[in-house]
């Protein structure tokens, strides 16, 4: 079992991982089971807070839907998605993303809306096997994983978690008047993404200014925490935190405002975390 302590520190949420057990590999079922609840059909695990709806589907893909004050999604187009990634580095230095077959995902545990240390595994065509762990802790979704047979892999291979933020700009229909343009600009002027880097430096990225988030001035040596605030999420704040021995990087390289969407990749330090104890926490406040 992996325990987490989630506590507020200034304006950030601190996530500390403590090992109280290890991964256990048990006989597996043929596929990931799914819930039968009306709002969560097809999900392996799901839960809801007052601010967001979290779901991990039976195909292994995760969706996070920010909720409005009435308890419904602010918009389906604003869903934040999370995917598990297995990357190998080829002899020529090129990074190759290995495809995960949803039909090869397996678990001994039933579908649940109260996920605590839920695990499932998968096997890729090249023989790489991996394990994923997911839990809910005080309204946060905790995710982690590891390769189960790294010594059998020919090329350097790592497990990662990719987080995709969609275009969060308000929808525009038709041509705007000068007054409407001013109102639009006023609405999005406070959009921002705040990060804390591995070296402790805090960086504030304006949401409406074109930037290359992968540039050294922003992500630098890696990111330990990120907070995203956009007007379309109705004052909700999306926070992502990497536990000790893990970090995140921006992988989107287009020079665009952060409001138009960006991609973040989490991974653990294979030297410091060979047993896959590190976690990424996602929450909406």
Describe the structure.
- This protein is mainly beta.
- It has a single domain, classed as Distorted Sandwich (Beta-galactosidase, Chain A, domain 5).
- Helices cover 4% and strands 42% of the residues.
- It contains 1 helix and 18 strands.
- It has one helix at 178-188, and strands spanning 2-9, 12-19, 43-48, 52-57, 62-66, 80-89, 95-98, 118-123, 129-137, 140-147, 157-165, 192-197, 202-206, 223-229, 237-242, 246-250, 262-268, 280-284.
- Strands 3, 4, 5, 6, 7, 11, 16 and 17 form an 8-stranded antiparallel sheet that branches. An 8-stranded antiparallel sheet has the order 8-9-10-18-15-14-12-13, with no helix packed on it. The chain has a two-stranded antiparallel sheet with strand order 1-2.
- The radius of gyration is 19 Å and the shape is globular.
Structural class: mainly beta
Q: Per DSSP, what share of the residues sits in E-state strands of 2 or more residues?
A: 35-45%
Mean pLDDT rating:
86
Largest sheet data = 8 strands, antiparallel
Unreliable spans are: 1-5, 7-30
CATH architecture descriptor name: Distorted Sandwich
In DSSP terms (H or I, runs of 4 or more residues), the helix count works out at: 1
